[in-house]
Amino acid sequence: MADPPSSLGFEALPMFQDALREIVDRTEGGVASLIMDSEGIAVESYARDDAPFDITTIGIEFGVVLGSIKRAAESLEAGQAREVAIGTEKMTTLIRTLGETYFLALAIRPDGNFGKGRFLMRAAAPKFLAELG
Amino acid sequence: MADPPSSLGFEALPMFQDALREIVDRTEGGVASLIMDSEGIAVESYARDDAPFDITTIGIEFGVVLGSIKRAAESLEAGQAREVAIGTEKMTTLIRTLGETYFLALAIRPDGNFGKGRFLMRAAAPKFLAELG
User: pLDDT for B82-102, tens place per residue?
Assistant: First the structure.
């Protein structure tokens, strides 16, 4: 790719915001979503006005977890990590890797529609990947 | 509890083996399952004869991941970690915490019935917890 996207380039692309909002809004119980790189830098995020927590902080914490999952998968020769779901008392977080550098995360309420969120993320992943280059 | 269960005590309890086998056999694509403590010591495990990987090694690797998830959840004030699903190219691993010390893990093939495994683990958890004391 001759012209790799800069963070300024990302800000100028409404596609990410729209796609993240669509995933949150179409998932019953959806709260917030983001695209982040493996160093914990958010590319774009979207949160509902009433989101009870900060999606960037969640992304940073679970991005570290994703790193330990990638190392474990390598050690187990289990192939590339593709998706992770983490359920705690107060929220469920779904993560889908976008290539080796980026990941997509969606936070939903514990009673939210986990399967729907997972489906929407899977469907959107190729579009994100194409834009991230 | 006056008489904490020893590993010898566990070996004498057929309940764990039977329950682990039931979870594996009733989950389409189920390969192996185990109960492990937070230090990576397996309480009991069950694997199909044709299991392509060692469930104890998986438990140890993803037990470390579970530790990092617990720390992240604490930092995020997200409440206790309850369940984790990790999907890689070659397998999906479902983990359910059993109190603060133990966890239940189920490895299934990538095309296996994720939802069924999750349901069976959730249904079996109270029974395991009662035995683990």
Answer: 999 999 999 999 999 999 999
Q: State pLDDT tens for residues A83-110.
A: 999 999 999 999 999 999 999 999 999 9
pTM, full prediction:
0.89
d(CA B124, CA B118): 10
CATH entry 3.40.50.300 includes domain B14-132: no
Show residues of chain B in contact with A82, CB under 8 Å. Answer: 87-89
Ramachandran bin of B40, using left for φ above 0, alpha for ψ from -120 to 50, beta for the remaining angles: left
Q: Are the Cβ atoms of A79 and B73 closer than 8 angstroms? A: no
- Are the Cβ atoms of B58 and A80 closer than 8 angstroms? no
Put the strands of the sheet holding A102-108 in their side by side order: A42-47, A30-37, A102-108, A92-98, A81-88, B81-88, B92-98, B102-108, B30-37, B42-47
Contact B85 A85 (CB under 8 A): yes
Q: Measured between CB atoms, does A32 come within 8 Å of chain B?
A: no
- Residue A82 φ/ψ, nearest 5 degrees: -115, -45
Residue spans of the domains in chain B: they are: 14-132
